[in-house]
């Protein structure tokens, strides 16, 4: 028994023990659920141990194509295939699902010669896959088969056959796809994540495919929400404070960045600075006479959650976004909160 199986079994045993005092029917139900989970957990351990060069060849094939990964399957395998396609698409491997029945009635046209096909079939003899298999062989489209039977038509026709271990189904009749579909789903996840790591797919890349929801908002970068261009409040070191006040009022961010002759950000003037230096002679002064040097800044690729933390830590409301000391934009705490970082 592997360490993983031991941990899983220990957790399931603890769960079963917690049922003491339940009715006979409840105990029976919990025993059934525990048996199913143990059976499928053991199968996943066996699947992990079975991985070999075929898995690596499948990765090489999928990484090397110019087009997309077409995932297909019938029945329960089809449901798993849809999920595998969705996971790949969201993690940097363009993919989509094609129903084998629809493929035989025109949807084969969705599969290009630069694509690759991943076909799922528990038996490897699913007759609805015949047209897709023949199509890939006719046009030299790479085919990866995922099946339990190495001697099946699907495995024999595939460029790479991923054969899952012949572990028993969790169904007591041995008929309902349970363990087999769990292994297929997990193997699809393994392919997707391995491809993700090969490509160096990052959290920022993930955010590009998940702009909606809390995850998408949390992965926004400061460059996605910053004020830039004509909305960026800036002045020169020698700018008269009358111009500074006009710039601050027009941009409505409560501050102005001060740049030197080379365009580098060297200071900041806030509305608080103006109030603290308020005298009859103020308008005759220059920007460099009241500015605060070394303004707080942030890098362009920083996430907005990092900007929020910086503002909270420094007790400020704005951060200039700079690159090579030059201001690219400015982000205000209200922008961060509107974007949903908090």
- CATH topology group of the largest domain: Rossmann fold
Strand content: 15-25%
CATH superfamily (homologous) name of the largest domain: Glucose-6-phosphate isomerase like protein, domain 1
Euclidean distance between termini CA atoms: 45 Å
Trace the largest sheet across and list its strands: 2-1-3-4-5
Q: Which residues form runs of ≥5 with pLDDT under 50?
A: 15-19
- In this structure, how is the largest beta sheet organized? 5 strands, parallel
Oligomeric state, counting identical vs distinct chains: single chain
Helix content: 40-55%
Radius of gyration: 30 Å
Helices and strands: which structural class? alpha/beta
Mean pLDDT: 89
């Amino acid at each position: 028994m592997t360490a993983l199986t031991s941990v899983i079994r220990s957790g399931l045993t603890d769960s079963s023990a917690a049922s003491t005092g339940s009715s006979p029917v409840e105990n029976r139900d919990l025993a059934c659920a525990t048996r199913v989970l143990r059976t499928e957990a053991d199968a996943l351990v066996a699947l992990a141990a079975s991985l070999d060069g075929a898995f690596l060849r499948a990765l090489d094939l999928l990484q090397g194509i110019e087009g997309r990964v077409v995932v297909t399957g019938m029945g329960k395998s089809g449901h798993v295939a849809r999920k595998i396609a969705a996971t790949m698409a969201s993690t940097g491997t363009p993919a989509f699902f094609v129903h084998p029945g629809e493929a035989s009635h025109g949807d084969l046209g969705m599969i290009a010669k630069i694509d690759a096909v991943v076909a799922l079939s528990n038996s490897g003899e699913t007759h609805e896959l015949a047209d897709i298999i023949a199509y890939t062989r006719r046009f030299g489209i790479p085919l990866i088969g995922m099946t339990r039977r190495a001697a099946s038509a699907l495995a024999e026709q595939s460029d790479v056959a991923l054969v899952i271990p012949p572990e028993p189904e969790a169904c007591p009749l041995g008929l309902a796809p349970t363990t087999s579909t769990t292994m297929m789903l997990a193997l699809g996840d393994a392919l997707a994540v391995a491809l993700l790591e090969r490509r160096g797919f990052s959290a920022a890349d993930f955010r590009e495919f998940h702009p909606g929801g809390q995850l998408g908002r949390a992965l926004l970068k400061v460059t996605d929400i910053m004020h830039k261009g004509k909305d960026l409040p800036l002045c020169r070191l020698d700018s008269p404070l009358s111009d500074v006040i006009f710039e601050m009022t027009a941009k409505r961010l409560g501050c102005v960045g001060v740049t030197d002759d080379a365009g580098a950000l060297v200071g900041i003037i806030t509305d608080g600075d103006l109030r603290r230096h308020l005298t009859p002679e103020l308008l005759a002064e220059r920007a460099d006479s009241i500015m605060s040097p070394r303004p707080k800044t942030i890098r362009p690729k920083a996430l907005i959650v990092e900007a929020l933390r910086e503002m909270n830590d420094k007790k400020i409301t704005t951060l200039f976004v700079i690159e090579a000391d030059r201001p690219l934009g400015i982000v205000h705490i209200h922008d961060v909160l509107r974007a949903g970082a908090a």
